[in-house]
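SEQUENCE WITH STRUCTURE:
===
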Amino acid sequence: MHILFVTDYLPYPPISGDRIRVYNIAKCIAKVHRVSFAAPVRTEEEVRSVDGLRDFCRQFVTADLPRRNPIAHLPGLFRTALKGQPLELHFMNSDVLRRGIQSLLKTDPVDIVQFEHSRMAHYADVIPAGVKKVLTFHNVASQQFDTIYKVMRSPVPKFRAWLFSRQMRRWETQCVRTLDRCVTVSENDRQLLLRDVPDARIDIVPNGVDTHTKQILPRSDGPLTLLLIGLMSYAPYSDSAIYFCEKILPALRKKIGNVHVLIVGPNPPPEVTRLQGDGVEVTGRVPEVEPYYRQSTISVVPLRAGGGTRLKILEAMAFGRPVVSTSLGCEGLNVTDEEHLLVADTPERFVESIARLANDTRLYESIVRSARQRVEAQYDWEIIAAQMLRIYAELVQA
């Protein structure tokens, strides 16, 4: 078969959750089928990212998606509104990319087109009959932006999140009804979609981790160091960093003394970079994350908004770093509190959980061992990709 992935970014380098997922699943699938990509590009760095995919990708369709003056967007926003689509879809729209996809389909027939994120599903209008269409919900955007709305502080972004949440619920319902197959990363997300389309065929294909290249690291013998890692330009992650440093860290230091914090991830906004200092290091984008896991003692995931499931939790579990997470942070993962990680939904519980791991070697090692066993058994990318391959086989035989 020939599979075309239509993505919002080319998934290289795999530096954020959705890129990590797409990169690893596509790489595994390419061992069995031909794989191509179609995606907008915004910078010269993104254009060059094609080189990192050539080992397994057949061909690429890309189109420049430059930043424009806000006024220049008005005609496109108006056209999007007339179509009854969420206004945010306009910012992912490219007529050049549409024509490129159409050209590829004519010259090198495709069996399945897989859209990554519901915001890319509007390109389905150029896919001819007979080509199966799959949509991966990395998260349910309507729910994701509803939670973002609740933690946003600035009124304009808050209103935008509220509006997008409501527009995307209608759009995602339409996608579920019209595309051939939909995939979510968790049962929670599947149930959110089924509330509006109860008879839909929606499969669960969870996120994963490469358990072959990521091995348990020795416990750091330095000071207690907490790792908070994620795409910092994404509002839920920047909120989690601020929340942790303002509401949790002071009480933690009162309880156990010297604590270092590593905030690792691309494009931190000013309100996150201002956290730098007094034992807090804000790195921005780093070439490799493993050195920061080596320095760390515990991985913290104090998320209060967002959707999907957290690849960084699986990554920490693979590297042998026990996780303290909110319920929302680990939502959708098949993990158990006190066995695979510790769940903390208040600042007080976060402080208590971190202190327990810092002081109880037996608990620390037990969680490391159980977490590693869980990712090996259920979350290796080869296991995840095999589930997608079964879906492809069912689609082409239908």
